[in-house]
Amino acid sequence: MESNYDVIIAGASNSGGMAACAAAEKGAKVLLIDKMGDSKYLYRSSIAAVNSNAQKKAGIKIDKAKLINFLTLFAQSNVDQRLLWKWVNNSAETVNWLEDNILKPNGGHIMAQPDAGYETLINTAFPVENVIANADDTDWAHYGSWVINKAQELGVTLQYNTKLEDLITDDEGKVIGIVASDRQSGQKTKYYANKGVIICTGGYGGNKSLMAKWNPFGLKKNVYSDGPRDDGSGILAGLRVGAARDEEPAETIFDRGGVKVGTNAEDHYVVDYRGFGYFWLGSYPFLKVNLQGERFGNESEPYQFDINSAAKQPGYLEAVIWNEEIMNHLEQFHTLGCSRLNWPGIYDTEGAKAEVQRRLDDGTAQKADSIEKLAAKLQLPERNLVRSVERYNQLCQNKEDSDFGKEPYRMFPIEKGPYYGIILGGRLLATLDGLRINTNMQVIDKKGNAIPHLYAAGNASGGFFWGSYPDRVPGLACSRAQTFGRLAGKNAADN
Question: pTM of the full predicted structure?
Fold first, then answer.
């Protein structure tokens, strides 16, 4: 196999695939490697953008300044605002390229989502979502293989089961290649890049030791990590050649981590892609109580805020309480993004009920014909849970949450059985803090100087997020990855 290329990209998912196509379109000789045996399934089905062709066609208008100010506020300005503006000004080009060059030739297209109808300040939302849809808008178009095929058509050399181990630099500190290992044999090989190396290897949520070092609280509030491939290896390689890294964690967490009664959150961090304990209705603003059976806040909030709140309660967990009747009125809650009822959300009503049954079957969820019996099954103080349910029902009847201010349309009483409950913790999708980059996607050192010929994109890069992920700007993480991947590929090829 050839060992000399113009551009080498480590990681063949959202950022890496787009980087490979962009570099190859500029005539660069490209090597694209990935540590695992496949990456096609990782391409996300929802991509944020501002002023994409699909959004223009749908009449969707978004104020860029208002959106960037919101994202800056959301992160308490712990971001590089130049990167936010770089994204918003290039996001449409990325989505348009994807639609014209990948989706339409294969029968897919972009379907812009106009709905961002949240009412409260904490749920401020923007209609940035561009859904990857099939021809008749009935399902997602799974396009990962189309991106990979396009890259290969452009001449990209693709090598799976090949892991970035180290970067090679010359005497002046310029990155001139990589050391990669074969997943099966462990044999190491050197590959050289004339123009640049792009790190697109993802975050570190699948590496428990790095979580303990860089995000220790994340180990307590998350009971699952859905990214076993996220080992932090690309970030570590960058650090070894002098790169700077975000000093505070950023992450995207779903409030969908169902665990069995009695679970100790501090000892339960399961890294697996198979979705053990997945509970989609955890993102619905049902009644939620702590392990003392007490309601502790407004359940109508972003996914990760819910987990942040629960993590301030005893045991870092919460219990979700609902009944059979609520599941027949899910549309009333008007959730958006991937918690939206019906496609392009994950489930319809029957699908949600089927998942509840799966959690009952595996012993994660509990069912009872009285709140007292449900409390016993969930190991919650009976008296406290009964009081919490009674008080919640009273607030629902009053059509005003005078305790915590939840919107009236999201209040639904729990009056008749059967009753359900599940213990819930965080489900880590990805860490979002990574190597610091400038607006050219170049990795920088602690003095802000670019490390020559080294680039990063996606969750291996930093400076864009801080703390919690703004899920009311749906598809933002994917869009950052794909947009910055394209920019990194173009810039590396231009060296």
Answer: 0.97
